[in-house]
Design a protein that fits this description.
mainly beta; Jelly Rolls; 2 domains; eleven-stranded antiparallel beta sheet; six-stranded antiparallel beta sheet; elongated
Length: about 525
């Protein structure tokens, strides 16, 4: 996958300079198509997914009680919550001084060595690391070392991590960050992506006469609906007062931050995280740990998550405020348009209380079907069988005043609607069904009115009641199954039925109206 690499040429450059810069562009594109290897590249390594999944538990990300560019030995203390560790990485940021210097970093967690890693500089073209360790170096010698720490974390306790460095490198440590996936059955279900790398967003210099203004990090795969979305981001080398930007799922059309360095900032507050100085490290710390649950216009981040497409964040080192085709910058120079150098190294997206909502807003007649008219006293899984039209599908896709109405014509039959949902989850934890509508007779009150909601049990071959009402007004019926879930799914299909409470007869016909229906799966 080729990541977005924005490279800009000053207008006054000669054709020869443009040819040189085009060569640099192609080289940068090749860098971002290569697999992450533990060696140096000036533009760095894409921040890509190292672990993704879902779990009943949580994702813990912390830099403990200590961060900022400090001389070794560098120690931090982190209070880890209770549960069972499933996946853990310990990250150490090291300042090399220049890309040519060499040295090492030795890291321990709770007294156990995670390994001694050689920081080889530009000459280390084929380094070897073991035990799940990755080492990313970019820019002027900025290192981000990733250790496998799953078996070294102590749950429900304070954890102590120490990094020691040596060699000709500068050796100061930016921070030690713990990212941990852990199981805890008392917590809700979460979905997560943990992305690591080391991108060097930079302005042009004599040694590297081109710019790298922006880069994507992708959270690929189907995302669930959730009650909260949180994005954590870690940066190295950012400077307070030098603008930089972070966007989550901005649209690609029009004047947007997707690929236009002079985008209209005011028009994209919904997708912007923080202000114009995200990596705003102060006091020479050059380390930033950020956490977001909403965007700049107070939109909940969960409401910007794509549940039908891949999600992504875009790191920008600045913004072309004067629209001259250039994001001006200089190292530790204030009043310009962007960061001289800033390194995104970690991005963690977490969705809490995840569910998959199935309704007829999408997929009607493709992976969701609705059927109408009437059924007998003991309907089968295929009753009724008259398929909804396209207009009728649209009428039940949202909770509004548009409904699908049916009335019986045969004595002893009940007005009914049946809904089939193709379920993607192979072994859900819970199925919840909601139906909004009205069932009524009109001639007689009491239990003659209202409707009953059912789900089909494929094991017993019968419908099981989820909820019922005797009211003849529009109501919301909701019910769920939390055990023996496989009995309610057959070849990936779940079947739901709603029928009016009294059959067609001397007292009149039976009526059913559906306004909206959905099935929600907890994976």
């Amino acid at each position: 996958m080729i990541e977005l690499v924005t490279l800009v040429i000053k207008k006054e450059d000669s054709n020869m300079k443009k040819l040189e810069l085009l060569t640099a562009v192609l080289a940068s594109l090749l860098i971002f198509t290569m697999p992450a290897m533990a060696q140096w590249q000036f533009d760095g390594w894409e921040v890509k997914t190292m672990e993704t999944g879902s779990i009943k538990g949580d994702i813990f990300v912390s830099h403990g009680n200590n961060s900022g560019l400090s001389a070794p030995p560098f120690t931090t203390y982190t209070d880890v919550p209770g549960g069972s560790a499933v996946w853990g990485r310990l990250y150490v940021g090291v300042w090399g001084g220049t890309q040519d210097r060499t040295g090492w970093v030795n890291t321990t967690l709770n007294g156990a060595s995670l390994g001694n890693v050689t920081l080889g500089g530009t000459g280390d073209t084929n380094p070897t690391y073991s035990g799940g360790t990755n080492a990313y170096s970019s820019g002027n010698g900025v290192w981000w070392v990733s250790y496998n720490a799953t078996n070294n974390v102590t749950m429900n306790a304070q954890n102590t991590a120490t990094a020691r460095t040596g060699g000709t490198i500068d050796g100061r440590v930016y921070a030690i960050v713990l990212a941990l996936v852990y199981q805890n059955t008392s917590l809700p279900e979460v979905q997560y992506w943990i992305n690591e790398g080391n991108v060097n967003l930079h302005y042009n210099s004599s040694a590297f006469p081109y710019v790298l203004d922006s880069n994507f990090t992708w959270f690929n795969g189907s995302a669930y609906s959730s009650t909260e979305a949180r994005l954590n981001a870690v940066y190295l080398t950012g400077s307070s007062g030098e603008p930089d930007y972070l966007y989550f799922n901005p649209p690609s059309a029009g004047n947007s931050p997707y690929g236009n360095m002079a985008w209209d900032i005011s028009a994209y507050r919904r997708y912007q995280l923080d202000g114009s100085d995200v990596a705003d490290a102060s006091n020479g710390s050059y380390f930033d740990f950020e956490s977001f649950t909403s965007t700049n216009d107070s939109t909940a981040l969960k409401d910007t998550v794509n549940t039908s497409a891949n999600n992504y964040a875009i790191f920008w080192r600045g913004h072309d405020d004067n629209s001259d085709g250039w994001i001006s910058a200089g190292f530790q120079v204030s009043g310009l348009e962007g960061e001289a150098y800033v390194h995104p190294v970690l991005a963690v997206l977490k969705l809490t209380n995840i569910t998959h909502v199935y309704d007829f807003s999408t997929g009607a007649g493709v992976n969701k079907w609705a059927y109408r008219y009437q059924v007998g006293a003991n309907p089968t899984a295929n009753d009724p069988s008259t398929v909804f039209t396209a207009v009728q599908y649209a009428n039940i896709s949202v909770d509004d005043d548009l409904k699908v109405n049916d009335v019986t014509t045969t004595n002893g039959n009940y007005a009914a609607h049946r809904f089939n949902f193709s379920i993607a989850e192979s072994a859900p934890e819970k199925i919840n069904v909601t139906w909004i509508g009205r069932g009524y007779r009109g001639a007689v009150g009491g239990q003659d009115e209202g409707a009953t909601l059912y789900i089909y049990n494929f094991t017993s071959g019968t419908y099981e009641q989820l909820a019922s009402t005797t009211l003849d007004t529009e109501v919301t019926l909701t019910g769920e199954k939390t055990s023996s879930i496989s009995s309610y799914i057959n070849s990936g299909n779940a079947t739901v039925l709603v029928k009016q409470n009294y059959p067609h007869g001397l007292q009149g016909a039976s009526y059913i109206e559906t306004d909206y229906v959905r099935l929600v799966v907890t994976p």
